[in-house]
Amino acid sequence: MVESGKYASNALFLEDLRVGKRFSSASHTIDEVQIKAFAAQFDPQPFHLDGAAAKTTLFGGLAASGWHTAAITMKLLVESGLPLSGGIIGSGGEVSWPKPTRPDDTLTVVSEIEEVTPSRSRPDRGMIRVRSETRNQYGEIVQILIAKLVVPRRPALGPDVSPTGGVTLPRAAER
Amino acid sequence: MVESGKYASNALFLEDLRVGKRFSSASHTIDEVQIKAFAAQFDPQPFHLDGAAAKTTLFGGLAASGWHTAAITMKLLVESGLPLSGGIIGSGGEVSWPKPTRPDDTLTVVSEIEEVTPSRSRPDRGMIRVRSETRNQYGEIVQILIAKLVVPRRPALGPDVSPTGGVTLPRAAER
Lengths: 175, 175
Hints:
The structure is a homodimer of 175-residue chains.
Chain A: E1 2-4, E2 22-29, H1 32-42, H2 46-49, H3 51-54, H4 66-81, E3 89-96, E4 106-118, E5 125-135, E6 141-152
Parallel strand pairs in A: 1-2
Antiparallel strand pairs in A: 2-4, 3-6, 4-5, 5-6
């Protein structure tokens, strides 16, 4: 039941999402050049910048910034891993990095819908909670992200198609 | 009681940290070029890439990726905002973005130690929980990060200085 996401052509509305639905992304291979470039700009610490210096640290060798792993995860979700209509818009979440991302790792993301909640105050949208696990080529988890995202509801399509005749349901009719 | 961090010259060990201790970072001004460059690489969605297209979205105008705000926050913490010996090494945390970061925003980070916990199994280190609020030039919070970080304990300095004569205390002596 893992679907490969296709962002533009197959975008999903809140009504299309169910708890337990899973999506898998394409892959991204990171290298030493990418790791050092991100670190120089955003996380200039020896274990992200210099392989020799990294050996004497807690990491035992060059490792990507956790925020770099998070950014690559986002790229994979946006481009292929989570085809939501309206895009991927989050208010926040929990992130953890059980293992570091290393040079030449190939990362993929599998996401699972954990909660779907229509908004009571905004009939055009809802919130979902999604768990996204980012794994390397050995199947080891390098990041777990539990994110809360805003997802639009499917707009009414007019009298021929919509069961409500194109009329927005009053709020009292929402669950 | 806000201290301005100085990474290399003033790095702190676990023993130097107390709940309630605060640190403030230098500032970083973001612009449209930075927002679009980060988005093109890691979060290629219209509201992060194109000001005109962004107007019709939930954001109402160009906004930085939340992961870009997180990455800039990390840069500010590493360079000036949290002078920990051993650097800033996190196992994860909670992040939220109450408001988007906009072009020409100037961001600063104030961090407060919320918890200090010596390790029971590793006498050379401990964990801290830190709340870091990233604000724009209007004082509005654009990100709250609650991170768990690993911090080394101060190494024993030898018989003349260390109360344990340079000998590592047995685990039974730890609290």
